[in-house]
Amino acid sequence: MNGAVEAANKNIKKILRKMIDKQRGWHEILPYALLGYRTTVRTSTGATPYLLVYRTEAVVPVVVEIPSLRIIQEAELSNAEWVSKQIDQLALIDEKRMVAVCHGQLYRQRMTRAFHKRVRARNFEVGQLVLKRIFPHQDEQKGKFAPNWKGPYMVRKVLSRGVLVLSEMDGTVWPKPINSDAVKRYYA
Q1: What residues pair up with 150 in beta bridges, in sequence order?
Q2: What is the 3-state secondary structure (H, E, C) of 119-142?
Q3: What φ, ψ does residue 94 adopt, rounded to 5°?
């Protein structure tokens, strides 16, 4: 079954390449592209979107032409047997969705770990001099060629999770705490 789906997805990719080259007839190709997207296993969930929505894997037209074991078995079932099989599949859908949720959580943890490997910790101490970023939505922003940093300011307090309380050089305390992502060290 998966081999047939992969073959269908390869054919869809070829069709999409032709569509991109010609830039015409995309409306005829769109259903095939959507089928390929919906029947491809997602890395984040470990399942296809089709499986999570419809409780079963998609039957690709190739599989209907060259019947798989699943198609042959369903064709030879009586109505009562088919209904009981569907009820069994419905009972398993919660388990399949839980597996997808667990897979998603593990994927998120892996991505978080990979991100944090590249992050450098920025520690500030009381008394250090820093520059504060001027964001585009602030009143201090004057235009395209204006400076991006303002300061220097002195760190008065270091709060949890990288929050800083700043003061002007004359000792006036800045009214709002600021995140350490919006400041950088000032080297005089």
Answers
A1: 132
A2: CCCCCCCCCCEEEEECCCCCCCCC
A3: -60, -40
Q: pTM of the predicted model, to two decimals? A: 0.41
User: How far apart, in whole angstroms, are the C-alpha atoms of residue 174 and residue 182?
Assistant: 14
CATH (residue range 129-185): 2.30.30.140
Q: Please list the residues that pair with 132 across neighbouring strands.
A: 150, 183
Mean pLDDT within 133-152: 78
What is the C-alpha separation between 127 and 157, in angstroms, rounded? 9
What is residue 156's predicted lDDT score, i.e. its pLDDT? 93
Nearest to 177 by CA among 124, 140, 141: 124
CB 109 within 8 A of CB 149: no
Structure tokens at 169: 């050089």
CA dist 155 and 137 (Å) reads 24
- Domain ranges for the chain, please list them: 2-118, 129-185
pLDDT tens for each residue of 81-136: 767 777 777 777 778 788 888 888 999 999 999 988 887 778 899 999 999 998 87
Strands 129-133 and 149-158: antiparallel
User: Under a CB-based contact definition with an 8 Å cutoff, are residues 103 and 47 in contact?
Assistant: yes
